[in-house]
């Protein structure tokens, strides 16, 4: 008898999913296990009011399944808001694979994940995220018709569009805060030099910005120093750099009670998801006069490309839609000023209004 395609399992702490602090009306949370490949994954579907749940797959060496669940729940809700704010006919979901992408990733594991996505019958559409490459997505897509961001389903790697959207958002934030969209002489601390962070650096450098860069991988830093004349800084001090703009482009929660008093930048605008550790952190930024570009509004370029592109001919259309992120952020900034609210609260309100409107 053949082994089951995949099965739901009780990982440690999963019995507390409903009581988890990040559980927020999620429609479905799937704990998946494939013994043959060693796959352990969580797929969280937050909301499908506007359409099937779309969100990337993240592979990370989580210490516990509770950490993985925290990420899946937070990120899936973020995707609901991101897709709504971007005007996409899609709900929000996210998946996490509990594995070190450098040492535990195998074709068999990726294919097993793809088979599990297929079993959800289109309720969840997966795509690339941290720890997953374009080549990995091809393996996943070989087992499911519900994977996007491959050459066969659109424009391939979405990271260039994410980078374009972040850059456009930085321009909008600089224009709102300093009265000019010109970036010549503007200093930016870019924390994280992966595909997106490095792409943001390219745009900023081409438009005259001065870069301070950090990454846990030293070769990435050396490359940026050589290519952009960037100044290196310790990743743990990137938030405290004496710059105009702090751009977190790695993992989330770098804006928190400990770091906010140390931030010297007048603008925070980066690609990382879930940058605020708690909702109260948005209030603290407003009180300090720091303009925060809400992450899921700013970094929507990738999901726009994944959602809308069906072939390489769609590049111009996706770029046009991604450039509109600047207009969305300007509207958020103006409404926040008018209502005296944190930009993070205003972004949530706009997304919720679109969700309610259907």
UniProtKB/TrEMBL annotation:
The keyword NADP does not apply. Gene3D superfamilies: Leucine Dehydrogenase, chain A, domain 1 (3.40.50.10860), NAD(P)-binding Rossmann-like Domain (3.40.50.720). SMART domains: ELFV_dehydrog. SUPFAM superfamilies: Aminoacid dehydrogenase-like, N-terminal domain, NAD(P)-binding Rossmann-fold domains. Residues 156-358 form the Glutamate/phenylalanine/leucine/valine/L-tryptophan dehydrogenase C-terminal domain. The active site is at residue 94. This is Amino acid dehydrogenase. It comes from Pseudovibrio exalbescens.
